[in-house]
Amino acid sequence: MKPIVIIGMVLIVLGAVGLIYGGITYTSKKNILDLGSIEVQVDEKKQIPMPPILGGASVAVGIVLLFMGRRGMSRGRTV
Q1: Are residues 41 and 32 in contact, defined by beta-carbon separation less than 8 angstroms?
Q2: Residues 70, 2: Cα–Cα separation, whole Å
Q3: What is the pLDDT of residue 34?
Q4: Residue 7 — very low, low, confident or very high, per pLDDT cuts 50/70/90?
Q5: Looking at residue 43, what is its pLDDT?
Q6: Contact call for residues 43 and 27 (beta carbons, < 8 A)
Q7: CA-based diameter of the chain, in Å?
Q8: What is d(CA 61, CA 76) in angstroms, rounded to the nearest whole number?
Q9: How far is the C-alpha of 19 from the C-alpha of 53, rounded, in Å?
Q10: What's the CA gap between 48 and 76, in Å, rounded?
Q11: I need a surface site. Which of 18, 47, 50, 62 has the fewest CB within 10 A?
């Protein structure tokens, strides 16, 4: 599979996630207390906000890249 097709698929997935969830959310652990064998951790939810226009643009560019890569494959050309 061509790299342009893979990049197109990744952009489509990331854009769809951004449109559906309004961004990318992840959880990180933070140490609050560390006294020898006693350790206290807290889970923190963090979000990378993504405007809807950016998610839509990502999906559109991903579709264009996907079709460009597929079109080149069907004609037997290498891009």
Answers
A1: yes
A2: 9
A3: 87
A4: very high
A5: 93
A6: yes
A7: 66
A8: 23
A9: 9
A10: 40
A11: 47
pTM, full prediction: 0.63
Reported as half-sphere exposure (CB side, CA atoms, 13 A), residue 70 has a value of 8
Give the pairing of strands 23-35 and 38-49: antiparallel
Q: Which parts of the chain are beta strand (E)?
A: 23-35, 38-49
Whether the Cβ atoms of residue 58 and residue 11 lie closer than 8 Å to each other: yes
Structure tokens at 17: 């996630």
Q: Distance between CA atoms of 38 and 24, rounded to whole angstroms?
A: 32
Q: Which residues of 34-55 are buried (b: 16+ CB within 10 A; e: fewer)?
A: eeeeeeeeeeeeeeeebeeeeb
- Identity of the residue numbered 33: L
The Cα–Cα gap between 49 and 23 comes to 4
